[in-house]
Design goal:
The complex is a heterodimer. Chain A has seven helices and six strands, in the order αβαβαβαβαβαβα. Chain A is an alpha/beta fold. Chain A has a single domain, classed as Rossmann fold (3-Layer(aba) Sandwich), CATH 3.40.50. Chain A has a six-stranded parallel β-sheet with strand order 2-1-3-4-6-5, with helices on both faces. Chain A starts with 7 loop residues before the first helix and ends in a 7-residue tail after the last helix. Chain B has one domain: Thiamin diphosphate (ThDP)-binding fold, Pyr/PP domains (Rossmann fold), CATH 3.40.50.970. In chain B, a hairpin with a 5-residue loop joins β5 and β6. Chain B is globular, with a radius of gyration of 15 Å. Classes of the chains: A alpha/beta, B alpha/beta. Chains A and B meet through β1, β2, α3 and α4 of A and α3, α5 and α8 of B.
């Protein structure tokens, strides 16, 4: 099976988010989310919300849901460490929460400071009550996000899709 | 650093005044005393009370304001809660929601944990921080006359609006609204959207 190019999955994921009627995309940037963020900004319906810290996004999307809009939160795995207490609000109120997390601190990581949070990401999310879907195959990202969006918005749950560093690619320090 | 002036306003009276003619205002309250203050006026389905999520009140108001651009959204929260999520002022200022107002009930204390001093007791000026973030309308209120001027700003001035109301630090009786998260969410959405 031919592997899709690394950038292709973003377009498919964006289509999935549009189909799920996502209207607010909150984010702290990661290189792996560059294309998705650009598409969110260019879209004339979606409101892109740039955050100073990932925890803000949990609250923003809770408010969005109160107002009748679905949203998605994009972040790097290090950001998962910032959201933990705020997840309590989404958990207690059963606000749908769709998080797309690009992983650092694993496959081919060059920066040792990324490793602790990257390695803890999945366990920390699960300990906080978040359902975790991990994906390491580019051709499976869009369908995984589609399933996660359904579970979040229709199943009324917090769901994180972890996109492996093997997919996102590791930073070339020599550039 | 803000100039020191005498603080005289009673938080319950301030909140009763702000909410007296609320119309169809959507209200988000930060955890602790601001939630009890709002409940002391009335339990209203247009209220969404945070009982946790410290630092999230203003951002919850932002998401709601973006989703409901035709409705006025007011966030009432405390100085400690605002300080924990102070980066949110920058996020709000960049979004420029014209329908969002923020009112801080600033007693310069962490009221739920033993009245320990917050940074505002030591001169940190929240209105100046909001202004620095890019809020065009900010105010710090110390007395009834200033409050009278500020209340129409919370309702009518194009947002985002930020008003820091200095209130005295006396303990008030706890008046508890419903606390079950899904109940609060469902009744707010049903009232606003006609479905949960």
């Amino acid at each position: 099976m031919a592997r899709k190019k690394k950038t292709d999955w973003s377009k498919d994921v964006f289509k999935v988010l549009k189909k799920a009627d996502v209207q607010q995309i909150a984010y702290v940037p990661d290189a792996g989310h560059t294309s998705l963020i650009k598409m969110a900004i260019a879209d004339n319906v979606i409101k892109p919300v740039s955050l100073t810290s990932e925890q803000e996004g949990v609250a923003v999307l809770s408010g969005a849901w109160l107002g009748g809009e679905a949203g998605a939160l994009l972040m790097q795995s290090s950001g998962v460490g910032n959201v933990i207490n705020m997840l309590g609000m989404a958990n207690e109120c059963r606000f749908p929460l769709l998080m797309l997390v690009t992983m650092r601190g694993e496959w081919g990581e060059f920066n040792p400071w990324q490793v602790p949070m990257g390695q803890a990401t999945e366990g920390v999310l699960e300990a906080s009550g978040v359902i975790v879907h991990r994906v390491d195959e580019p051709s499976e990202i869009a369908e995984t996000v589609e399933a996660a969006a359904k579970l979040a918005f229709e199943g009324g749950r917090m769901v994180a899709v972890l996109i492996g560093q093997r997919v996102v690619g590791f930073k070339d320090w020599t550039k | 650093m803000a100039a020191r002036r005498k603080i005289t306003l009673d938080r319950r009276k301030v909140v009763a005044n702000i909410l007296k003619d609320r119309g169809d205002l959507l209200l988000v309250t930060g955890l602790g005393a601001p939630t009890w203050d709002a409940a002391s006026v009335e339990d209203n389905p247009n209220n969404f009370y945070l009982w946790g999520g410290m630092g999230g009140a203003v951002l919850t108001g932002l998401g709601l304001a973006l989703a409901q651009p035709q409705r006025r959204v007011l966030v009432l929260t405390g100085d400690g809660e605002m300080l924990m999520g102070v980066g949110g002022l920058a996020t709000v200022a960049v979004q420029k929601p014209s329908n969002l107002a923020i009112g801080i009930l600033d007693n310069q204390r962490y009221g739920e944990t033993g009245m320990q001093e917050t940074h505002t007791e030591h001169g940190v000026d929240l209105a100046a921080m909001a202004s620095g973030a890019g809020f065009q309308t900010t105010s710090t209120v110390y007395n009834a006359a200033e409050l009278k001027t500020a209340i129409p700003m919370l309702y009518n001035t194009p947002g985002p609006v930020f008003v820091d109301v200095k209130v005295t630090a006396e303990d008030q009786p706890m008046i508890l609204p419903p606390r079950d998260g899904p109940t609060l969410k469902h009744r707010f959405r049903e009232n606003l959207l006609g479905s949960i």
